[in-house]
Each structure stands twice: as C-alpha cells, then as structure tokens.
Design brief:
The chain is α+β, with helices and mostly antiparallel strands. It contains three helices and seven strands; from the N terminus they run αββββαβαββ. It has one domain: Chitinase A, domain 3 (Roll), CATH 3.10.50.
Length: 138
C-alpha cells in the first residue's frame, strides 16, 4: 500500500471502529458474534434464505459520511444475486432475514471489502451502512 492509502486505511478503520462502538448503544441495534450490527426497520413474514439460495433485494448503501455509493431503490430496479457471492456482512444478515424484512446493516470493514476497498467511493477499511430489503428467495 502507498503511504496515502495506508493513512486512509488507518483513518477509515479508526472512524469505523468508533462509529460501531457508539452505534451499538442506539435503540434497536443488535450485534452478531462477528461484529455485524443491524437494526430491524420492518419485520419480515417469510422464510430465510440459505447460503446456496439466490435472492432478490432492494438496497441502499452509504458511507459513514452519508455518501451514497449504490442504491437499487434509486434505480427502481431490484438486484438478484447468490447469497454466497456477496460480502460477508451481507451474507450473514441475509441468512438471518425473513422474506419481506427491511434491515439497516452496519458492516465493519473486515466483513465488507477490508484493506482493499472496492475502488471508487469505497476506500480501504471502510465501514458500510446498507438498508437491505429481502424481496424474495429465487
């Protein structure tokens, strides 16, 4: 990593850890053993997917500063993908979510894109926030 990337990675990691440390005290926020945090915005009514399923979801992803980096809600076009092909934080949450649920996920960098980031707006060690609506299991 270049020095500037290392500086950005360290800054993002510190900011993310501090954010999550404070966030867990907010009402309705749950944390899994891995460190994934989530808040149920809307209860679901159906089954939960398995790791081998494909799902149809709407989602809205932001950085800690509020910058939107991707949103199917804004495109009005849900996404279909295999549960085992998404970042670890997403996969973990999807396995817990019943169809019809809308959850806000607070994903630490080690369960997202880690030290590499994802290019573009998602830098190294970025903590990500997603609103994820599980529409159906395909």
């Amino acid at each position: 990593m270049l020095a500037t990337n290392e500086e950005e990675a360290n800054k993002n990691l510190e900011e993310g850890l501090l954010y999550l440390l404070n966030n867990i005290h907010n009402e309705g926020v749950n944390e899994t053993e891995s460190g994934l945090q989530y808040k149920i915005l809307k209860e679901g009514y159906g089954e939960s997917p398995t790791i081998d399923d494909q799902v149809k979801c709407n989602y809205h992803g932001i950085l800690l500063d509020g910058t939107v980096f991707d949103s199917t809600f804004e495109r009005s076009q849900p996404a279909i993908f295999p549960v085992n092909a998404v970042i670890q934080g997403w996969a973990e949450a999807l396995l817990l979510m019943p169809v019809g649920a809308l959850w806000r996920l607070f994903i630490p960098s080690n369960l997202a894109y880690g030290e590499e980031g994802a290019g573009g707006l998602i830098g190294p060690n970025a903590t990500l926030i997603f609103d994820v609506e599980l529409l159906e299991i395909i």
